[in-house]
Amino acid sequence: MARIPPDQTQDEQEEDIVPWTAEQVRQWRESQPLLSMRRVIGVQVLVGGLLALVIGAIWGLSSAGSALYGVAAVVLPAGLFAVVLNRQMQGAPILSAVFGFFVGELIKIGLTVLGLVMASRWLDEVHWPALLAGLVVTMKVYWVALGMGRVFYPQQANEREKK
User: Fold this and answer.
1) Cα–Cα distance, 69 to 61 (Å, whole number)
2) Are 138 and 40 in contact (CB under 8 A)?
3) What is the C-alpha to C-alpha distance for residues 38 and 9, in angstroms, rounded to an integer?
4) How many CB atoms lie within 10 A of CB 43?
5) Domain that includes residue 41, residue range
6) Between vectors from CA 49 to CA 46 and to CA 52, what angle results, nearest 5°?
7) How many domains does the chain have?
8) Which of 43, 50, 61, 63 is deepest in the core (most CB within 10 A)?
9) pLDDT in single tens digits along all 163 residues of the chain
């Protein structure tokens, strides 16, 4: 069996790594926009409301209520998570903040699942396709937020408009 020799260029590249100065780190952090959770949740509500209108026009008012319930099952725990996370991040040690993030995310998921379990008790008539459509479309707003700088990153949008 033939042996493949190690790539010499990889060793050379590792030697060329130069640590950043504090000023370079500061500049990089300033160039990275912060995601506005308020805007994400606001757009989730807007998209969910529009979806409920479309579903209501197609399947009726009861289906629109189920879709709004699906939206609420995502938005309410996400809003609670955002408030708690914002308060916890102020002045907390990094390990505590990371642990709090994961615990908060676990609670958010648990509340969403609890909302789905309780749907049949809290709604008179559940239209599961509409409810799940509201849930899934609202959750997908997170992924859209990563790709749309103009809507979700206000600082970045303002800087682009100035140029």
Assistant:
1) 12
2) no
3) 46
4) 19
5) 36-154
6) 150
7) 1
8) 63
9) 677 766 655 555 556 778 888 998 888 878 777 777 888 899 899 999 999 999 999 999 999 999 999 999 999 999 999 888 877 777 778 787 788 889 889 999 999 999 999 998 998 899 999 999 999 999 998 888 777 766 666 655 455 555 5
